[in-house]
Amino acid sequence: MQFVDLKTQYANLKTPIHERINAVLEHGHYIMGPEVGELEQRLAEFVGVRHCVSVSSGTDALLMAMMALGIGHGDEVITTPFTFIATGEMIALLGAVPIFVDIDIRTCNINHTLIESAITANTKAILPVNLYGQCAAFDEINAIGKMHNVPIIEDAAQSFGATYRGRMSCSLSTIGCTSFYPSKPLGCYGDGGACFTDNDDLAACVREIRDHGQQRRYHHTAIGLNGRLDTLQAAILLAKLDAFPEEVAARARIGECYSDRISSKCPSLQVPYIEQDNTSVFAQYTVQSEARERLLKKLKENNVPSAVHYPMPLHRQPVFAELEMNRVGRMLPVSEAVAEHVFSLPMHPYLTVEDIEHVVEILAQGLQ
Fold first, then answer.
1. Which domains does the chain have, with CATH numbers?
2. Which of 11, 230, 361, 368 is such that its CA lies 20 to 30 A from the CA of 35?
3. Mapping DSSP to helix (H, G, I), strand (E, B) and coil, where does residue 26 land?
4. DSSP label at 224?
């Protein structure tokens, strides 16, 4: 059993993937070839925004979004501590200050009721993360941002394809950022990402930043970086995009099947909570248990892969321990408790009911 089964996906999509790759090999435009523009247009239409700017990774998408918003040394960015390091890392890389706010105990996303009290005169952005594939409470967060004139950056690295109250992830804020890392719901065969926005000026700025700050060839109006998406990766994403809606639907069915079976056979496990008006793409299917270590051992003994997303919140990471600016002296009890209990099960669009029942049976044995 695979944790994420990219081999089966490739077998199903082999012909269109090879056709797309061969087209790039034939025309030879490996940097900013025509597939890049085609992908950006299709992704913008899929999300429902005016602009998609493809970039070199989800991490770089966050970096360039903050650069485009003018975030720099001494500025504060409010975010969650319960996420992958890239979120806080890119804030700190710009010399800004990650201000960590605790999470909602049900969804594991940032607790929007705690955000306003963390705002100061130095707050320059709020950066919610859509953990495990479900969007954060963007209506409430956007209202806070509007009240304080603070832009919102949607970290949608795990939620591309999900919906929030009928709207697509990446369309919910000032600018949305996602990742096309191979294991993501929509993944390429290397690193890749994108920024999404309805703001014309912001999109133009990100486009300049991703190409060394060039407004036109050899005319540099900003400090930028090499943040372009390779044409070959764009071609692979175009081939996968045709099948993506079906895969999103499959993820929803598999997530529901997991939750039904676990609730029936392992009622002590806490299954993912999905808000009534949301859908999740289940970038990870993550449960919680006080018996985590015992269950992880049982899964390993039965050759079922698993992972912990995430074992240590960002405010406890050594790299942030000396940052006096992040006000980490405060306890963030929900993040710390959840980090001790979460673990993720195999999740991809090609899991069968038999696969799920096998995993759940092993969990049930581990709880006996």
1. 6-101+109-241 (3.40.640.10), 244-367 (3.90.1150.10)
2. 11
3. helix
4. -
